[in-house]
Amino acid sequence: xxxxxxxxxxxxxxxxxxxxxxxxxxxxVSMQDEYFSIYCVVxxxxxxxxxxxAQFVEARHNLAKMxxxxxxxxxxxLLYYQSxxxxxxxxxxxxxxxxxxxxxxxMTQFKEKxxxxxxxxxxxxxxxxxxxxxxxxxxxxxxxxDDQAQHLELTRDLAERFNHRFGEVxxxxxxxxxxxGARVMSLTDPTxxxxxxxxxxxxxxxxxxxxxxxxxxxxxxxxxxxxxxxxWEGQPGISNLLEIFSYFTGRPIADLAAEYETAGYxxxxxAVAEAVADGVGPIRExxxxxxxxxxxxxxxxxxxxxxxxxxxxMADVRSATGLT
Length: 324
Ligand code: TYM
What we know:
Elements: E1 5-10, H1 18-30, E2 36-41, H2 43-46, H3 53-70, E3 78-81, H4 87-96, H5 101-105, H6 108-117, H7 121-135, E4 141-143, H8 149-166, E5 174-176, H9 210-218, H10 236-249, H11 253-260, H12 265-289, H13 292-321
Parallel strand pairs: 1-2, 2-3, 4-5
Helix pairs in contact: 3-12, 3-13, 4-7, 7-8, 9-12, 10-12
């Protein structure tokens, strides 16, 4: 095991779905072999939109359970609730003094979310807290989907600014996105990304049963025409299904497109649905089989270790900035 570290996080704002699995979790799991891995249920981020407290408790817990079910291994990696390690918020404040207001106001997610749920300061400073999540553990790599590219750029920028002003404290972290499936699209609108907060039939959730998966994929919006081809311009619906198919079969997209080219959309969709159901089934079973106590135990012991690691970084930050 190297001493290189990886960090990533996910918000407890809805059911985890295929986009989360393919775009992020798959790398969270595989990177454990090479990096010391630190993963987080980012509950403070989720507070930037309204939550009902009783449901929030459950959403946090269920997401933690799902992260373990997909294969994050608490024997070698950390998994904790962001709010259990106060250092994230503390470092966020310090980084916020280096973040330009204009830059934050131009962030796509700020513009989208503030249109939907009204503006609040937390939504604006959201990416600064994300930078703090990453930098508090001095990590080298961050596995995320495509939609996090802007936030990772800001993180790198803040790390560089901090280092430039106060001396080298932070490594500059790399964004790691998969070659295929960095942006899994909605089943009902293949021009927008699959999202936890959209209608259930637009996404495959990782707790969906085989029946639900087959139904959703059969009714996925595809394109006019009948030839199966990988062509995002002309056939976004089919291209999205081809990427998903390739992920679950481990076969190159070109092979799959050649095999199903003239099979017809119906046959193609059945094959995709079977592959997805086979891949998701074991995750659902692992999730259903896991005890709540086990999850709670992992969350609290990881948080304790994460606090002690974050103490070390904050000591460096305090001494570099004169806050000693
Ligand atoms: P979140 O909770 O929206 O999503 C979690 C992860 O899933 C990826 N993802 C997707 N990948 C491919 N296709 C999709 N349709 C899709 N939808 C979501 C996301 O890119 C992400 O990797 N701001 C972050 C949470 C966060 C974070 C961090 C991430 C907070 N602090 C520090 C990394 C490092 C977010 O809202 O992810």
